[in-house]
Design goal:
Protein name: Glycosyltransferase family 1 protein
GO biological process, one term: carbohydrate derivative metabolic process
Order of helices and strands: EHEHEHEHEHEHEEHEHEHEHEEHHH
CATH superfamily of the largest domain: Glycogen Phosphorylase B
CATH topology of the largest domain: Rossmann fold
Pfam families: Glyco_transf_4, Glycos_transf_1
Strand content: 15-25%
CATH architecture of the largest domain: 3-Layer(aba) Sandwich
Structural class: alpha/beta
Strand order of the largest sheet: 3-2-1-4-5-6-7
Number of helices: 13
Number of strands: 13
GO molecular function: glycosyltransferase activity
InterPro entries: Glyco_trans_1, Glyco_trans_4-like_N
């Protein structure tokens, strides 16, 4: 396929109500593809924070009435026909689905029209942490769906191997392309030396565990001067606020709710924390690495592919003692923070920058279309 060939790409994603990892990834990917001269249209369930961002960035999209996260036979059947109708009108060269439900309905609709289709799994629906019964159902479904996939992308090697463990896909079909994020480092701002600023950026809903982090923060020695910014909202926010209040940490813990100033907060921070019960491959860690921050994160999912002792601390799941110890070490030692933060930045520049991800994804499209033309 000619390198200069301009593609008509349709992306499909389930949710528009939140700006989570998958939607942020897709937003940047769409912007990147448009900057390369390709035509992009996004099909998305409903309207909300994500569609507002699409409007701001002048990206074409259609809101689908029946594409919903919840399983509902009536909506899912109607969702399939709705996607199929749009694909018929848009006549894309390639369809690229993101998130589980869009991946299911989008692949079926694309295949019914004989369109080439790629699926990105942003963490499998049968990931560790999901009940064994659900794991079995989702893994069976994903095994079936490989027949309707020209290529599958996982955002971490952990997910790729986890898929193989459940007999989902083959090494030829499934490829890891690590998430990459645009550079958000600004010119070095003079950070306050007296108060060490921590930050966690995540929705207050499972699988994230801000509650556990607050429990750990409450065990830090009283003389340490620190403050943490929590960015995000969600169903678990209130109980976290209540815990902070109960532990008399109101002056040190600031809840900002959903914020669109993540870059600004990261550039002012000294330490990035992400405590979770399960993960795919978190984008927020890469954004923090781009701003030269040391990382403290739970050792779950593909996190260890971006965090190691070189640039931070991996916390065994639910190990409060190691979490408290790691927080204390980094709060106390400024030189260690700077050293680990510089390593974070180097890793970001060499492995997780946005252009690497963009061009690897384009290579997948080229490969899929070339294979198609040989058939």
């Amino acid at each position: 396929m000619n390198e200069n060939f301009m593609l008509n790409i349709v992306y499909i994603i389930t949710r528009s109500d939140v700006l989570g990892g998958a939607s942020v990834h897709l937003l940047e990917l769409a912007k990147g593809m448009i900057s390369q001269g390709h035509q992009v249209h996004i099909l998305v369930g409903g309207a909300g924070a994500f569609t507002e961002e699409l409007k701001k960035n002048h990206i074409d999209f259609s809101s689908l009435k029946h594409l919903k996260r919840e399983i509902s036979l009536a909506h899912d059947v109607l969702g399939f026909w709705e996607i199929k109708k749009h694909l018929k009108q848009l006549k894309p060269d390639i369809v690229h689905c993101h998130s589980s439900k869009a991946g299911l309905l989008g692949r079926l609709a694309a295949k019914s029209l004989n369109l080439p289709v790629v699926f990105t799994a942003h963490g499998w629906a049968f990931t560790d942490g999901v009940s064994p019964r659900k794991q079995k159902i989702y893994a069976t479904l994903e095994r079936f769906m490989t027949k309707f996939s020209d290529h599958i992308i996982t955002v971490s090697e952990y997910d790729r191997q986890h898929g193989f463990k459940h007999n989902v896909g083959t090494p030829e079909l499934v490829q890891t392309i690590h998430n990459g994020v645009p550079d958000i480092k600004t010119s070095a701002s003079e950070k306050s030396s007296s108060i060490v600023r921590l930050i966690m950026v995540a929705r207050f809903e499972d699988p994230k565990d801000q509650y556990f982090l607050i429990q750990a923060l409450s065990k830090l020695p009283a003389h340490l001067t620190w403050q943490i910014d929590f960015l995000g909202d969600g169903p678990n926010l209130q109980k976290c606020q209540e815990l902070a209040n109960h532990e008399n940490l109101d002056s040190k813990i600031i809840f900002h709710g959903q914020s669109f100033k993540v870059k600004e907060f990261l550039n002012l921070a000294d330490i990035f924390v992400l405590i979770s019960n399960y993960e795919g491959f978190p984008l927020t860690i890469l954004e923090a690495m781009s701003t030269s921050l040391p990382i403290i994160a739970s050792d779950v999912g593909g996190v260890k592919e971006s965090v190691s002792s070189k640039n931070g601390y991996l916390i065994p799941k639910r190990d409060i003692d190691i979490l408290v110890q790691s927080l204390q070490e980094l709060i106390v030692d400024k030189n260690l923070r700077l050293q680990l933060g510089n390593n974070s930045r180097h890793l970001y520049e060499t492995q997780f920058n946005f252009n690497t991800m963009l061009h690897k994804t384009l290579d997948v499209y080229t490969q899929v279309l070339s294979m198609r033309s040989l058939k």
